[in-house]
Amino acid sequence: MQAAGQLTVGKFAPRLTIQAGARTARERRKTGGNIMRTFVYAAILGAGALVALPALAYDGTKCKAPGNCWEPKPGFPEKIAGSKYDPKHDPKELNKQAESIKGMEERNRKRVENARKTGKFEYDVSKISAN
pLDDT tens-digit profile of 5-22? Predict the structure, then answer.
C-alpha cells in the first residue's frame, strides 16, 4: 500500500520510498537553497576572526615606549653590564673579526689592481707579483 505522492523503489526494498515532491540537492543548489547557510557560516567565521585578532596581537609585555618592550625575566637584573651575568668579553677577541675583514679587503684590492694591469683575474694572492 502506497501513500499518495510516494513511489516505491525496487522490488526488494518496500520501505525505501521517495517523496514525489522532494527536491534533489542539485535542484536546491540551482535555486539557491544553500546560499543562506553559506552566508551564515561566513558571518560566524568573520565574527570569530574579529574577536580573536586582538588576542593574537597581545604578547604580555609592558612597553616603556613604542618598540622598547624588553623586560628582564624574574630574578634577573634590569641591566646586565656590571652584574654577575655580564660576559666581560676580551677586546682582543672582539677585534678578530674586524682584523680579518681588513685583511680580506686588502687581498681584494690586490686582486682588482692586478686584474686592471694584466686584464686577467687571479684569485690566489700569492701568485700575484709585487711589481
Answer: 555 555 555 555 555 555
Q: Where in the chain does DSSP place strands (E)?
A: 6-8, 17-19
CATH architecture classification, 58-129 = Irregular (4.10)
| Domain boundaries, given as residue ranges, for the chain | 58-129
Burial class (CB in 10 A: 0-12, 13-18, 19+), 111: middle
> Would you say 17 and 8 are in contact if contact means Cβ atoms under 8 Å apart?
yes
What is the DSSP code (8-state) at residue 88?
A: -
pLDDT in tens, 32-54: 657 778 888 899 998 888 887 77
**Among 116, 114, 98, 101, which residue's Cα sits nearest to residue 124?**
114
| Per-residue pLDDT at 110 | 95
pTM of the model: 0.36
Give the separation between CA 3 and CA 99, rounded to whole angstroms.
Answer: 98
SS3 129: coil
CB neighbours of 72 closer than 8 A, spacing ≥ 6? Answer: 78
